[in-house]
Amino acid sequence: MNQPEYLSDPVLLLELRILLEDYFRFYDGELDEWEILAVEQEFRLDDEFPFKPDMIKRHRTTGKVLVVDHKFLYNFYSDSAIEIMPQLAKYVGALRKIGFRVDGAEYNMLRHRKNATQKFKRVEVTFTDKKIDTFLKEQKIVAEKIREFRKLSLDEWRASVYRTASSFNCQHCSFLALCSTDLNGYNGRDLLVRTSYEPNTYGYLSDVEGEIIE
Predict the structure, then answer these.
(1) Cα–Cα distance between 171 and 89 in angstroms, integer?
(2) Which of 10, 109, 117, 185 sits between 20 and 30 A of 48, alpha carbons compared?
């Protein structure tokens, strides 16, 4: 499989190195304050929701446990965007349901925009029981739909779904090249899948003919 494009861009790699060196200097000594409990560890809530938080940490003094999501961003998330984002709420709720103590969550944001006056920002987030319950119920609905789709042949699957296109969503989508290839009927789709995408490793889509990428 071809390496990602950013690995062959020396300017981007240099910028990334500088950003990370600045980051570790900025947060120097935090391991004296926080204990790392897990990094990229896979968990499962039943068979419907496998998930892999970036990190789980515990404060050495207070015992507070936070689920952390690392984000490389051009702009930091706004407070209003964070308010409605489901990922960390689902992580917190699922971990609690399988027996882990989790007190909250944190977005660890690194801004890669040139000449940014503030490069790093951490936002701690807590969730109401209602919000967690709503997001987990929605996750269950999606999982049930996926399970029904998996009973279909690939042709039946393709015939039963439709694309939702918008300039805001599509310009940032990781599957834009694949979607455009399908939409225009160009040759080379299979080659594009093999060279530019990796199958998910969580298990719930891994047996769908290797063509459906999470």
Answers:
(1) 26
(2) 109
